[in-house]
Amino acid sequence: ASSATEIYEQIISIGEGDVMVAISFPRYSKKVVSAVNLAKKSGADVIALTDSAASPIASLADQNLFARSDMASFADSLVAPLSVINALVVRLMLINLVVIVGATLTKFKKL
User: pLDDT by residue (tens digit) across 4-49?
Assistant: First the structure.
């Protein structure tokens, strides 16, 4: 999303039972902080992926995942944060796979 309005359009229906995964690294985006505030006010849980407890979204989140992005180089590296994202995606896919397989087996048992 390139504008604040687009972010709000994408999360307008967020509420209780939903989980937002908010990602913010230095130079922390005010749009992300604002979106997290909206999610919290709407009753959603928030998981923050950020660099430290000093991040503006860390204190707002229900759970924090910290991944350093400052390396001894000319540019910050996002390898660590992307590895965390990859691990989350793989885990969610595995959970979904177990649910799908379980539902399929239940259908077969009913045949």
Answer: 678 788 888 999 999 999 999 888 989 999 999 999 999 999 999 9
Give the C-alpha separation, 81 to 85, whole Å.
6
What phi, psi does 13 have (nearest 5°)?
Answer: -95, 10
Tokens of residue 45, six digits: 């849980």
Please state, in angstroms and rounded to a whole number, the distance separating the CA atoms of residues 85 and 90: 9
First to last CA, the chain: 46
Q: Residue 46: which of 96, 90, 84, 34 has the closest Cα?
A: 34
Which H or E run contains 101? Answer: helix 79-110
Burial class (CB in 10 A: 0-12, 13-18, 19+), 36: buried
**What is the three-class DSSP state of 17?**
coil
The alpha carbon of 51 is separated from its chain's Cα centroid by a whole number of angstroms, namely 14
pTM: 0.73
